[in-house]
TrEMBL record:
CDD domains: DRE_TIM_HMGL. This is Hydroxymethylglutaryl-CoA lyase. It comes from Virgibacillus profundi. GO terms for molecular function: hydroxymethylglutaryl-CoA lyase activity; metal ion binding. Keywords: Lyase, Metal-binding. Belongs to the HMG-CoA lyase family. InterPro entries: Aldolase_TIM (IPR013785), HMGL (IPR043594), PYR_CT (IPR000891).
Amino acid sequence: RLPNYVQIKEVAPRDGLQNEKKFISTADKVAWINMLSETGVSEIEYSSFVNPKWIPALKDAKEVGKQIKRNPDVMYSALVPNMKGLEFALEAGIDGANVFMSASESHNKKNINKSIADTYPVLDEVINEAKQEGKRVTGYVSTVFDCPYEGKIDPEDVIRVCEKLFASGVDDISLGDTIGSAVPTQVEQLLSPLLSRYPSEKLILHFHDTRGMAIANIMTSMHYGIHRFDSSVGGLGGCPYAPGAAGNVATNDVLYLLDGLGIETGMNEKRIQEASLFIQKKLGKLLPSRSLAYFANA
Ligand code: HMG
Ligand code: MG
């Protein structure tokens, strides 16, 4: 049985832009996020408060946070790696802090320069402080299916990280197919044990679409009762510390699917297409979304 309603978090201003070589000006980011704010989406991850040396494309996170026009119906969140990031994020204004780590040791090390064991105390402090400030906290877990360095990841490794993060106080967890490699059977093998531990509203699926499997994986996730997904307009995105990873599943394609299935999202597909065309023009390259290409050529 499919859900009646699906909640989308738009991650393009963070996951989408973090890997782009071309720097999008602060004014253009702000104009674009303001467009996204009028699409009916319930949450936008507007930037990332990581070390700007690691992710130069988002070095203006603070300015972006201060300048965007906040729609009261939208939740604005940002990626936060540590206390310094949280301090900047609180100054810029966030409704939610998104902490992150990996289920695989080597991706965790490459991405955040720490072992998994050393990451917990850092995130613990961030989660505690963010909760004290009244913020929603999401924990991203990366490489939940495959790791670019280690190959297949055991669902037990993912469960262990999820247990730790929930024990530390995250409100929900976003499970990342970081390199976009999973097929539906892998989704089933992970969701089965996770959903026997946690209610479906606590879990979000975050698919990258490197091999074109994301829509099939979303369909499978929905059959398991998942009704929250991360996606990115135009299919922008990728992780610079996961070689070969392409963009997130395109919001455009997810909306086409959900609309066709009669599943509500509260979102306006045309406005999503327009926001995609805006950033496509600024980046000066075609974005991978198939339904965007169809819209643009129609
Ligand atoms: P580090 O170098 O180990 O940090 O980096 P450190 O604590 O040793 O500090 C070193 C320097 O960085 C110091 O400056 C700090 O002040 C500075 P210095 O004294 O040398 O001048 N620093 C900061 N500056 C600004 N903001 C901060 C900050 N923290 C330290 N927040 C760190 C550790 C985690 C910061 C670094 O490894 C980092 O920034 N990593 C981010 C990598 C990243 O953004 N990856 C992509 C996002 S994750 C992703 O895409 C996956 C996801 O989409 C889900 C999925 O698809 O699976 C979420
Ligand atoms: Mg990602």
